[in-house]
Amino acid sequence: MASADKPINTDVPEKDVFALHFLQSLSNLRRQNTFNSPEKTNDRVKKIKKAAYVSMARAAGGTNRLWSRALLRRAAKENNKIVRFPRRKKRVTCLRRRSNRRDPVEEEEAERLRNLVPGGGGMGTSKLMEETAHYIKCLSMQVKVMQCLVDGLAPK
Amino acid sequence: RTSTFPTPSSQEKVWKMMNSSLLTPSSSSHVQTPATTFDHEDFLDQIFASSPWPSDEAPPPPPPSSDGFVDSRHQQIMMMPLPSHHQNEVVDGSSVHSLYNGFSAGGSLPFHIPQGTAGGMMNQQGQALTQNQPQVSASIATGGTAAAPPQSRTKVRARRGQATDPHSIAERLRRERIAERMKGLQELVPNGNKTDKASMLDEIIDYVKFLQLQVKVLSMSRLGGGASNSQISEENTSSAVAGGNQATGNSNDSLTMTEHQVAKLMEEDMGSAMQYLQGKGLCLMPISLATAISTATCHSRNTLIPGAAGGVGGHPSSPNLSGMTVQSTNKVKLSGNGVTEGSPPLVVKEAL
């Protein structure tokens, strides 16, 4: 329904929400024993990156957004944790009712986008765009937070 | 007859009411020739009473009597096409009129579809609409109503039996939706002034990749002290993407990040720092050379000879280093003062 698209909600919480989640995850990481060993910087970096994404997903909307759910599910799988998501009232996955939903011209680009945005495989194109917008906002917020931290902690 | 359209929230309420208060689909194919042409005018007057359409005026729950049944039904039917017409803000009285002609008392055909997929329909409201419309139009055709003049603006209006291929309507609605969201995305993405949809999508994709790359690099530089060379080299391939975006909107952020990265790399090994810079399309050179070049050929778009840069940058303790991009379109200077091991404060200047 075209008119119902007007109130698309792509609001993103403030920076401090992101910062809070990220710092919490970082402090959790620090408490891990294997974390501070100087040799395995690779692992460390990967863990930090994953923590960044997970904290971003939590800060941005928890399980209310498709991409964040997919991200959290993916992360949980890697940790061999079983995560249960509360069932939402609306259906999460769009019903694919028509055969010709995809416009072949834009579809290859949409494929690339799907590969980038977590959870993109199960979305129709218009839903994908919506999720992309929110994802972009959250990503930029997260980058800002991390940049501030880096600048704050940089050696003088 | 014109009216202002209901606000979206009230529309959603209306949808919910519609879906929840749907009557049984038992009366299937009663949509037929209009035995009785009831009074459309009253309905329309009722419904388009005032502007804006308050949600309280939404159809009351269907009363048990058959007449009331019809009323609420038709009121519900009324609302279906409206959302798609919100752009035009004109209720095409005659076309809606013709909608009703197809319904007699107890006609519930269009509601089969939304009812069957009530849950999913909330997400696919547009498609529900389009699904209903062809049904309606089919019934209209059987009813043999006079076709209202097709709207000139958007083809979505054409709900006549002939041109209303349900797929094409759905296609158009879908494209409209996608176009709306593209517009929203355009504002987010820097350099989003491309009108071409394909290039806009390219920009979006590049921007997402760039942001993800930023997260990765930032997570490397912080806490991480000294990222290994292997990681940086794999970054070089993807940082070409970032290079394109650097000049546009995020130049400050990414240059600072680049500085940090280069600084850390220079602490370890000059070669890896050079590799990193080259991957980004940057190089190191003495400030004197850089200023000479910039003053002499401000507007030239020649790329620097990599050899010149390589020959100069091989001194880890050389006091003054500066860099210039080899990008043809934009030149960014990366100049530094006193690069010593430990704490290199790099200053970034942006030229032309």
From TrEMBL, chain A:
Domain IBH1-like N-terminal intervals: 18-78
Bilayer-spanning residue ranges: none
UniProt-annotated location(s): Nucleus
Name of one Pfam family that matches: IBH1_N
Recorded superkingdom: Eukaryota
Keywords: Nucleus, Transcription, Transcription regulation
Keyword Cytoplasm: no
PANTHER family: TRANSCRIPTION FACTOR IBH1, TRANSCRIPTION FACTOR IBH1-LIKE 1
Name this polypeptide is given: IBH1-like N-terminal domain-containing protein
Automatic annotation (TrEMBL), chain B:
Any Pfam family hit: HLH
InterPro entries registered for this protein in UniProt: bHLH_dom (IPR011598), HLH_DNA-bd_sf (IPR036638), IND-like (IPR045843)
Biased composition (Low complexity): 137-150
Chain spans, region Disordered: 50-71, 137-165, 225-253
Keyword Nucleus applies: yes
A single MF term (Gene Ontology): DNA-binding transcription factor activity, RNA polymerase II-specific
A GO term from the CC aspect: nucleus
Entry keyword set: DNA-binding, Nucleus, Transcription, Transcription regulation
Gene3D superfamilies from the UniProt entry: Helix-loop-helix DNA-binding domain
Chain ranges of the BHLH domain: 162-211
Identification of the protein by name: BHLH domain-containing protein
Organism: Brassica cretica
